[in-house]
Amino acid sequence: MTEILAQEAAAGDISRGARVVDHPAWPQLKNAVEEIRPWQSKDGSIDFEAEGAPSLQVVVRMLDQVIAALEKLSPLLPHDADYHTALVADLRRWADGSFGVPDFLDSLLAFQPAANRVDGLQHLAVFPMYTQNGNPDRNLEAVVLRMVWPEWLAELERTRYDNPLFCGITFEDFTAGYDTNSAVFFPETIAVREAPERFSWGGIFCDREAARFRVVTEAAVDLLSVGLPDDVREMIADQSRGQQAFVLWDMIHDRTHSHGDLPFDPFMIKQRQPFWMYGLEELRCDLTAFREAVKLEADGVTQGRDVQYAILFDRMFRFPVTGERVRNYDGLGGQLLFAYLHKHDVVRWTDNTLRIDWERAPEVTNQLCGEIEDLYRAGIDRPKLVHWFAAYDLVSTYLAPHPGSRWAKGPDALDLSLPPRKLVDDVLPDEFPLSMFYEALSKKLKKVIASTKGITAAGPVTGAGPEPVAA
Fold first, then answer.
1. Which of 139, 301, 307, 470 pairs as cysteine with 293 (C-beta 3.0–4.6 A)?
2. Above pLDDT 70, what percent of the chain?
3. What order of strands is seen across the sheet that includes strand 139-147?
4. What is the model's pLDDT at position 17?
């Protein structure tokens, strides 16, 4: 029944024409959630004995406002009817338990956005959750989002990049946990009594990624006097093209975690490994997306070329200088890509100008992808610790380790009687510090990067855009 309602909603333009955020009940729901959030502890519970804590009656009254607003908004979203019913039950059970550690497993299992990927379809989600790269606490959050699933993307997923759980999404509005750098909506972040056997969806906000990319890239290009081809400059100036590039990049990246020669669990769930292992895995997935984008461009898919530049610029300009330097694995991947391209003379920093050999960039970038894949293939036959050292050797070939690093001194500097997970304690927080080039760039881009906190595209975006021109 839910699927039929969703199809009717899409066909009748119910969810597209009536924006949830325009309904007077949305600010009521949002404001009530914002009232509850500061009362919560890190695990999502409310300690009524804490100084300044509200009374139980006050919190119940505020939660009733959340439920009342939700029940007014739910008819706009018939495809989410089962989820909203389960959500109300979970909210009331939380209140009945005096707002202890929340458990929203039932509503999580009822929320199935990947089961009906219709371009422009809205969803209203309320969960106790942390927001990755945003708020580390499991606060109650509310977010209204739209599915990004244009026909050209659906066709590529059907024919080349099967990824049935992936959801490209854009923001409509959100509570404070998303007024951050978080650009993902993952079920793993939601407070539940036990993790499901498998998750059934994962969402990435391509509007935030594209908007952030455009701001930082434009600033970096100006600072470094990078000469851009006309079509690349046009892509950086175009939010719609940026979103199309990122949703395609994300779809290919996401599926790559479970494809290829994998010597370990690609998601590294419940594993403790040195952060360069995470950095290499994320970079491998990005470089695989780059390689596929080269193929797509050759096949006449116009978004393929944009994906290549989005990966190059985001990885080289934003990733290395964003966030803290404590085990910053995404930053490490960006440093490695830049250093590799520099060593192979694809990028040159001379006369205060960054020059890029646009013709050789695809070939050499794919070459780095090949080196990481060779590392993975050989890793299948190695013990874990030997594989970690092999990965360290690959990274340290292009990036200088910290002079105080024990790992850089080799196995003799470590207590090999300890299990591998204990040796992770000997990894420095910043095992591969920024180069002088990136130290200078970081200072100049610091304010620009900070300005992208909470950024989204302006106005409603459905993910529609020019169709790819296929050969």
1. 307
2. 92
3. 122-129, 139-147, 166-174, 202-205, 184-185
4. 60
Number of Cβ within a 10 Å radius of residue 36: 21
Cα gap 206→168, rounded to integer Å = 7
Do 363 and 433 fall into the same domain?
yes
Give yes or no for a contact between 240 and 465, defined as CB atoms under 8 angstroms apart.
Answer: yes
CA distance 76 to 272: 44
Question: Are 181 and 452 contacting, i.e. CB atoms less than 8 angstroms apart?
Answer: yes
17-52 per-position pLDDT tens digit: 689 999 999 999 999 999 999 999 999 999 999 999
Q: Which of 66, 168, 176 is nearest to 120 (CA)?
A: 168
Q: Is residue 273 part of a domain?
A: yes
DSSP bridge partners of 355: 348
Residue with tokens 């952060």: 275
Examine the domain organization and report whether 214 and 91 are in the same domain.
no
Half-sphere exposure at residue 294, Cβ-oriented, CA atoms within 13 angstroms: 17
With beta carbons less than 8 A apart as the criterion, state whether 271 and 265 touch.
yes
Each residue's pLDDT tens digit, 257-299: 999 998 766 555 456 899 999 999 999 999 999 999 999 999 9
Global pTM value: 0.92
> Would 133 be classed as within a structural domain?
yes
* CB-CB contact of 219 with 228 (8 Å): no
The boundaries of the domain holding residue 240 are 210-450
Within this chain, do residues 275 and 390 fall inside the same structural domain, yes or no? Answer: yes
Residues 441 and 344 in one domain: yes
CA count, 13 A, side-chain hemisphere, 107: 26
Residues 370, 288 share a domain: yes
Render 213-269 in DSSP notation, one character per residue.
HHHHHHHHHHHHT----HHHHHHHT-HHHHHHHHHHHHHHHHHHTTSS--SS-TT-T
What letter would DSSP give residue 40?
B
One domain for residues 329 and 442: yes
Q: Is the pLDDT assigned to residue 247 strictly greater than 50?
A: yes
**Mean pLDDT throughout 195-201?**
91
- Which residues share a beta bridge with 203? 167, 185
Q: How many CA atoms lie within 13 A of 113 on its CB side?
A: 26
**194 and 214, same structural domain?**
no
State pLDDT tens for residues 151-187.
999 999 999 999 999 999 999 999 999 999 999 999 9
**In terms of domains, do 58 and 93 share one?**
yes
